[in-house]
Design goal:
Length: 159
């Protein structure tokens, strides 16, 4: 299910929560979202207003996330509205923004609309889950006495 994120709307929402000792940057936000997307297997686009920083290399190679800047001639909301309108499967689309204009545009196409703070809460919850590895029981138990003797014999380490 593709996700379209209103970048600065989400960033502002995250900064409003006051999590962490200092404000999070747009690059840091994108990397956190990338980890979330990799864990969930989702693909996403995040759109920021303006032209962004001169050096955009911090936004390169983020898992499952395409980063866009609206440029000087338009704003992120208009770009997102156009993406919603152009989407060929809007019922599978999720739009992340607390902006009423974008939430209305999503609902008009029957897309899912999530407020930025709710999305961020989902991201934090997913990333804080402890990963359980599915290792075979034999790995946890180790070798049996017979297997150990067999390997010792094989390597010529018999006692």
């Amino acid at each position: 299910m593709p996700i379209i994120i209103d970048g600065y709307n989400l960033l502002w929402s995250v900064q409003e929560t006051g999590e962490g000792p200092e404000p999070i940057s747009d690059v840091q936000l994108c990397h956190i979202i990338g980890r979330f997307l990799k864990a969930t297997g989702e693909d996403s686009q995040i759109i920021f207003d303006g032209t962004g920083p001169p050096d955009k290399s911090g936004f390169d190679n983020i898992s499952n996330l395409e980063v866009f800047f609206s440029g000087l001639s338009t704003d992120a909301d208009t770009v997102i509205e156009n993406k919603i309108r152009a989407n060929t499967a809007p019922k599978r689309l999720t739009v992340v923004s607390s902006d009423r204009r974008l939430r209305d545009a999503a609902r008009a196409r029957k897309a899912i609309s999530i407020k930025s703070q709710d999305f961020w809460n989902n991201v934090q919850k997913q990333l804080s889950r402890k990963r359980t590895s599915k290792e075979p029981a034999a790995k946890q138990l180790g070798l049996s006495k017979g297997e150990t003797e067999q390997w010792l014999k094989f390597f010529g380490l018999e006692q």
